[in-house]
Amino acid sequence: MDDEVTVVHIYLHEADQGKRKTLMQEILNLLAAQHRVQNVVVFRGIAGLGVGGEILASDMLRLNVDLPLVIEFFDRPEVADAVLGALDGMVPKGHIIA
After folding, report:
1. Range of the domain at 72
2. 2 to each of 6, 39, 56, 75, 76, how far by Cα in Å?
3. What is the pTM assigned to this prediction?
4. Which run of H or E residues covers position 6?
């Protein structure tokens, strides 16, 4: 039995859009339907920095905040590599750590 896995972190924002749905939803669909990755979790940050350095934070005064998201998954190296290939062009460069 091969116990080797590859862990992948994908950094997004809630407002990132894909072609038809939010980018997060499109990535989750890709992971589940096309690659059958079962070990996936999405983390929603309570604060982060935007592209321009502005602080994005969740508080009661802001109703529309674009908070950071991290999608994390792990699987066999060949599955992770196939997913990384499918994500090329879908996720901005520099937003994936594997």
Report:
1. 6-97
2. 12, 16, 42, 11, 8
3. 0.86
4. strand 6-13
Alpha-carbon distances of 62 from 13, 28, 59, 75, rounded to whole Å: 16, 27, 6, 37
Question: What is the count of structural domains for the chain?
Answer: 1
Q: Rounded distance, CA 65 to CA 69, Å?
A: 12
Pairing label, strands 40-44, 96-97: unpaired
CATH at residue 29: 3.30.70.120
Helix, strand, coil distribution of the chain in percent, nearest 5: 25, 35, 45
Q: 5 vs 1, which has greater pLDDT?
A: 5
Q: How far apart are CA 79 and CA 82, in angstroms?
A: 5
